Amino acid sequence: MSFDLVHIFSTMSPLSKAIFGVLLLMAVLSIGVTVERWIAFRRSGNESKIFAQKAAPLIEDWRIDAVSELANKHQYSALARLFGATIRRYLRGVEETEGRMTPVELARNESERRKDQLAADLRRGMSIVATVGSIAPFVGLLGTVVGIIAAFQGIGAAGSSGMAAISTGIAEALVETAFGLMVAIPAVIMFNYLTGRVATIELALGRSVGELLDEMENHDGHASQQHKESAAA
């Protein structure tokens, strides 16, 4: 028997065709999510590089209000969104003189909340890829079981027996398992790749916002010291 997928698909039962269609849909979804995430990560990385280059001299001159305005122009950058939210909370804390928390503490708490939000955004759709990688082999196995049952039912209806009578039906049924594995294995690889990318981005975000918070605390320390010296004079 020649390995003709078109012929095999045409001889499948309606239920086997439906399972094959589900596997095909799962493959399309996992590939679509991976491509969309890859584009999003690449766009965010490019935007973040541009934002970091422009923001560095502004932070050195402590023009963080300008950094906040710059962040609004780079909405595709995860770094810009994190910096923008953190700086805005810091500036509001500077203006609020009656609170018990310092502006730096308020900014640090806001950065943690925003990092959690960005992490969820970075992982958007990845659960689909993980689900496909987990259940696609079982869906393929279900198709194989259904195909074998249909093959034996055909044998019973025809009243024939022997390997020659059932080999074609079993071969067609096993295609479902093979297709399920063909869908699952790339999905697992793609999920691991996306997870690694997200971990790298999260590490870079945490390091960068930590440096920003250090600059805020250092600046506040200098400002407090200058205020004490002026009061003593």
Helix and strand arrangement:
Blueprint: H1 5-11, H2 14-60, H3 64-71, H4 78-95, H5 103-122, H6 126-158, H7 163-232
Helix pairs in contact: 2-3, 2-6, 2-7, 3-4, 4-5, 4-7, 5-7, 6-7
How would you sum up this structure in a few lines?
Helices cover 87% and strands 0% of the residues. The protein is mainly alpha-helical and 233 residues long.
Notes on the structure:
With 233 residues, the protein is mainly α. It has one domain. Helices cover 87% and strands 0% of the residues. Helix 2 (14-60) packs antiparallel against helix 6 (126-158), helix 2 (14-60) runs parallel beside helix 7 (163-232) and helix 4 packs antiparallel against helix 5 (103-122). The longest helix is centred in the last third of the chain and has 70 residues, at 163-232. The protein is rod-shaped, with a radius of gyration of 29 Å.
User: Based on DSSP secondary structure assignment, what is the total number of beta strands?
Assistant: 0
Q: Indicate the low-confidence ranges by residue numbers.
A: none
Backbone structural class: mainly alpha
* Rg over alpha carbons: 29 Å
Average pLDDT = 85
Q: Please, how many helices?
A: 7
Head-to-tail CA distance between termini: 99 Å
Q: How does the major sheet shape up?
A: none
Order of helices and strands: HHHHHHH
The level of helicity is over 70%
Describe the structure using short key phrases.
mainly alpha; 233 residues; 0% strand
